[in-house]
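Annotators were shown the component list below and the corresponding predicted structure, then asked to write short factual statements about the assembly.
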Amino acid sequence: MVKGRRAIGLMGGTFNPIHYGHLVAAEAARDAFDLDQVIFIPSGQPPHKSEVFVANPEHRYLMTFLAIVSNQRFEIARVEIDRSGPSYTSDTLSYFNSVDSTVAWYFITGADAILDIVTWHDPESIFRHAQLIAASRPGYSLKKIQALERQLGPESIARVHPLEVPALAISSSQIRERLKQGLSIKYLVPEAVEHYIAKNHVYGALKA
Ligand code: NAP
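Structure shown to annotators:
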């Protein structure tokens, strides 16, 4: 990083729902890459999700807002929620670069999502506008990320940074499954998120 240059993390995800694993990952990335702040960006219309139930964007936005509101270095952006059509990361990163091209932008998301990056819309533009932080669960084989080199080439792979996050043992799918079975999600998500899900029946008939 160029000395004195601001560095900002853009935490992309469906956040269906947001959980402590996401929050710990964002904080770990902030620490490891000396980021000035992390902006959470809930996807409006996730490009790669067809078979999974995805709560409506306003619910996911509000749950994410509740989860990050007490951290002074965390912000949230509606950029993908308010944009129509699929939420392409390349559009989001172009937007933030047009707002401030002097910032070193870091796009943070799950390592498994990044494994598919060659199938995303305009990967070249993604690598032009940001470095990537690939947050992984404990025991995740870094070989999977290294294997991306064949598809991406050495210059782009040098801009992908793996980050192991033990708290990512929690997953959104596990939380949705627990809700379905009527099990507690206490201590897996912030209390305000737990209450929001229950009060608004975010996951349909499922109860929190
Ligand atoms: P996903 O496929 O649902 O998630 C893959 C894995 O990554 C899951 O284990 C997930 O855990 C984890 N994960 C997701 N977001 C994370 C985060 N911010 N921090 C740590 N782990 C995370 O991924 P997704 O949510 O749909 O997509 C992730 C990001 O990639 C989003 O910003 C999305 O817009 C972007 N994306 C862009 C394109 C494109 O531009 N064409 C295509 C696909 C994805 P949880 O389920 O617990 O979150």
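Statements collected:
1. The chain is about 40% helix and 15% strand.
2. The pocket of NAP is lined by residues 11-14, 22, 25, 43, 46-49, 87-90, 108-110, 112-113, 120-121, 135, 168, 171-173 (CB under 6 Å).
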